[in-house]
Amino acid sequence: MNLFILSRTLFNVLTISFIVVRIFFTIRFRKSEGISQKDSKKDDREGKFNFLIRRFVILPLIIITIWIHYTFNPSWMQIFIIPLTEPVLWSVTVIGFLGIGFLIWVHICLGKEWYANLKLRNAHSLIKSGPYSKIRHPMYTALFIIYLSIALISTNLIIIILMVLTIISIIIRLPKEEEMLIFEFGDEYKNYMNNTGRFFPKI
User: Fold this and answer.
1) DSSP of 97-152, one letter per residue?
2) Right CATH for 3-28+46-195 from 1.20.120.1630, 3.40.50.150, 1.10.760.10, 1.20.85.10
3) Domain boundary assignment for the chain
4) DSSP 3-state assignment of 197?
5) What is the mean pLDDT of residues 181-200?
6) Dihedral angle of Cα 118, 57, 104, 109, to the nearest 10 degrees
7) CA 178 to CA 172: how far, in whole Å?
8) Tens digits of residue pLDDT in 127-174
9) What is the largest CA-CA distance in the chain?
10) Rounded to 5 degrees, what are φ and ψ at 105?
11) I need a surface site. Which of 39, 85, 103, 120 has the fewest CB within 10 A?
12) What is the pTM of this model?
């Protein structure tokens, strides 16, 4: 199979699968308990600049680059192409689907406590089961695996750089997220931090 066609096919399959999973869990938990009243005024934890850059600069650039790359495939775009072999493309796709499987497990363990923004629900519980027994932010671990897999499958250096910037943007907001959880759970979360790794199990 032509490598460009294979890249486009695997990219579409992995990306659509990821989007379907995210939409499913978003709809499933949309009607869960509302935002905690004591947390309702803490809407700017992430930082407006970081949020705006990721949502309104990086994301549109990713979409535009993907559209140009796969729809028109202009000759000038070839200078940004990283030549990956067919076995590498398939291997990265498998890793991407493992990331999706991990993301599903994380969602199931997190349940109604998941919220897309840095907010807490009423009677919020600190989840320590499943992947959370070893990792504090396994959802980010799963997302990073998926993002990097999608980027590599595209074989496009621009998309890869933009995905890396997305990951960096998410990492930047993590201290605020952990500050929020310390505010909510106090010493319980501090002890939890001492016993777990941020993205990978503590060695």
Assistant:
1) HHHHHHHHHHHHHHGGG--SSS--BTT-----SGGGGTBS-HHHHHHHHHHHHHHH
2) 1.20.120.1630
3) 3-28+46-195
4) strand
5) 94
6) -10
7) 11
8) 999 999 999 999 999 999 999 999 999 999 999 999 999 999 999 989
9) 57
10) -60, -45
11) 85
12) 0.91
For residues 7 and 155, the answer to whether their CB atoms sit within 8 Å is yes
Nearest to 119 by CA among 27, 34, 30: 34
Q: Are 2 and 86 in contact (CB under 8 A)?
A: no
Tokens read off for 75: 């000759």
The amino acid occupying position 9 is: T
What DSSP designation does 47 have? -
Look at residues 169, 23, 4 and name the one whose alpha carbon lies nearest to residue 89.
Answer: 4
If you write DSSP's letter for every residue of 150-185 in order, what string do you get?
A: HHHHHTBHHHHHHHHHHHHHHHHHHHHHHHHHHHHH
Residues contacting residue 122 through CB under 8 Å, at least 6 positions apart: 33, 34, 35, 36, 37
Instruction: Kindly report, residue by residue over 69-112, the tens digit of the pLDDT.
Output: 999 999 999 999 999 999 999 999 999 999 999 999 999 998 87
Nearest to 140, CA basis, from 103, 113, 98: 103
Q: Collapsing DSSP states into helix, strand and coil, what is residue 32? A: coil
Per DSSP, 81 falls in state B
